[in-house]
């Protein structure tokens, strides 16, 4: 790819994602989550695997479009499912663990990308093709495991005793009855935090290559950032849950990210710029899970609210779509 081709390929992912996010999440209340989420994940993995066979720019565009379609229902579907099992106070730490798992996957992906790239030329395929083949196949295997282990919504659960289900549903109903109106303009917060998040996560390897480092080294150096951010994110979310306060920690995360990005622009030494970029990512990963948990808590995890949560997340994707 040349010129702005990478930016275009990045952008086209968000078009079907934005269009299908709300319809996809409305289906999850009508189809068992294990079938819907596992099916979408398998389709995603298969598309990624086949993307390794692409020979031209048009092929990549098509693959990215289908990836956007399949991925549109996975993330908001998981959020709705997790939110349905926990109270407003409990959901923050649980969602943070879910998002940190995504960061860990990103760290592993960076390490795998650096290692798999050495297969360049094996069996006539480029190194990037092998990255798609292997990581796409792993996603398909993960989809099979997801089908086996994903739980239904609480009302449809069969592994709970009748008295346990009744207690859980009553507890959730009491907790969710006190949800307040959206006075914090969460859509704007989603837009702000996720625009920053995608600017760092999507373009971090490209940013690091501008420091004069090779693609392999840049991929490797994305892993420490994600691991450190994950540890801090879980710690802050646990403290936030304990104190039952989110706003102050979201504000701290924003400030850390702002200072990190600001000093990244001012620093001339590449090692200092890398450290500043780490702080920028750290602040983003402090704020992002808490903001998302805030929205899930207000929705209450009710399947009948399946359109409300992706509608909020839609603003995040709109912000991300402007980045390329």
TrEMBL record:
<feature type="transmembrane region" description="Helical">
    <location>
        <begin position="65"/>
        <end position="83"/>
    </location>
</feature>
<feature type="transmembrane region" description="Helical">
    <location>
        <begin position="6"/>
        <end position="28"/>
    </location>
</feature>
<dbReference type="GO" id="GO:0022857">
    <property type="term" value="F:transmembrane transporter activity"/>
</dbReference>
<feature type="transmembrane region" description="Helical">
    <location>
        <begin position="95"/>
        <end position="116"/>
    </location>
</feature>
<protein>
    <recommendedName>
        <fullName>Major facilitator superfamily (MFS) profile domain-containing protein</fullName>
    </recommendedName>
</protein>
<dbReference type="InterPro" id="IPR020846">
    <property type="entry name" value="MFS_dom"/>
</dbReference>
<dbReference type="Pfam" id="PF07690">
    <property type="entry name" value="MFS_1"/>
</dbReference>
<feature type="transmembrane region" description="Helical">
    <location>
        <begin position="189"/>
        <end position="213"/>
    </location>
</feature>
<dbReference type="InterPro" id="IPR011701">
    <property type="entry name" value="MFS"/>
</dbReference>
<feature type="transmembrane region" description="Helical">
    <location>
        <begin position="128"/>
        <end position="151"/>
    </location>
</feature>
<feature type="transmembrane region" description="Helical">
    <location>
        <begin position="248"/>
        <end position="266"/>
    </location>
</feature>
<keyword id="KW-1133">Transmembrane helix</keyword>
<dbReference type="GO" id="GO:0016020">
    <property type="term" value="C:membrane"/>
</dbReference>
<feature type="transmembrane region" description="Helical">
    <location>
        <begin position="278"/>
        <end position="297"/>
    </location>
</feature>
<keyword id="KW-0472">Membrane</keyword>
<keyword id="KW-0813">Transport</keyword>
<feature type="transmembrane region" description="Helical">
    <location>
        <begin position="35"/>
        <end position="53"/>
    </location>
</feature>
<feature type="domain" description="Major facilitator superfamily (MFS) profile">
    <location>
        <begin position="1"/>
        <end position="324"/>
    </location>
</feature>
<dbReference type="InterPro" id="IPR036259">
    <property type="entry name" value="MFS_trans_sf"/>
</dbReference>
<keyword id="KW-0812">Transmembrane</keyword>
């Amino acid at each position: 790819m040349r010129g702005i081709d990478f930016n275009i390929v990045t952008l086209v992912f968000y078009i079907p994602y934005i269009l299908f996010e709300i319809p996809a999440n409305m289906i999850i209340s009508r189809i068992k989550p294990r079938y819907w989420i596992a099916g979408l994940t398998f389709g995603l993995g298969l598309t990624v695997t086949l993307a390794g066979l692409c020979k031209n720019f048009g092929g990549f565009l098509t693959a990215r479009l289908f990836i956007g379609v399949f991925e549109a229902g996975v993330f908001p579907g998981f959020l709705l499912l997790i939110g349905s099992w926990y109270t407003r106070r409990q959901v923050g730490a649980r969602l943070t663990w879910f998002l940190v798992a995504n960061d860990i996957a990103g760290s592993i992906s960076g390490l795998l990308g650096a290692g798999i790239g050495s297969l360049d030329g094996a069996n006539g395929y480029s190194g990037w093709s092998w990255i798609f083949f292997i990581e796409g196949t792993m996603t398909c295997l993960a989809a099979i495991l997801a089908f086996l282990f994903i739980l239904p919504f609480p009302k449809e659960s069969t592994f709970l005793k009748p008295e346990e289900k009744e207690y859980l549903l009553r507890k959730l109903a009491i907790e969710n009855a006190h949800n307040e109106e959206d006075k914090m303009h969460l859509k704007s917060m989603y837009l702000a935090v996720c625009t920053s998040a995608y600017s760092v996560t999507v373009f971090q390897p490209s940013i690091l290559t501008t420091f004069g480092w090779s693609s392999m080294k840049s991929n490797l150096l994305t892993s420490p950032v994600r691991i450190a951010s994950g540890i801090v994110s879980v710690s802050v979310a646990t403290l936030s849950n304990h104190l039952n306060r989110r706003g102050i920690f979201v504000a701290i995360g924003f400030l850390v990210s702002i200072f990190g990005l600001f000093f990244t622009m001012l620093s001339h030494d590449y090692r200092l710029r890398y450290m500043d970029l780490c702080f920028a990512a750290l602040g983003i990963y402090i704020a992002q899970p808490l903001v998302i948990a805030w929205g899930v808590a207000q929705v209450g995890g009710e399947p009948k609210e399946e359109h409300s949560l992706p509608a909020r997340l839609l603003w995040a994707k709109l912000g991300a779509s402007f980045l390329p």
